[in-house]
Amino acid sequence: MRIYEVEGRVIFLAQAATPELVDELTVDQLVKLTWRRNQNIDIVEFMLDEDMALQGRAIHPVEGLSYHEFVYCAYTLAAATDRLEFLLQVPDVH
Description:
Elements: E1 2-6, E2 9-17, H1 19-24, H2 27-40, E3 45-48, E4 54-61, H3 67-89
Antiparallel strand pairs: 1-2, 2-4, 3-4
């Protein structure tokens, strides 16, 4: 997991799939595995980065960010990304 501060926001990033794995997926598989997750998890969104790796991302304003919120964002991102990474390893899911 990588954590950055940009323009007053904390950005948490975690890779769920390499560009090589993403290349093996169809658009329908990417939609099934990401867009639906984006609808069900308020804090985490999944996206393709500039290298075409599948990334999970959480963003929170720095102002008012408590320790508990920081840990919650990091934990939620890690759990959601790990779950998606696991699903990508199961042959019948993708």
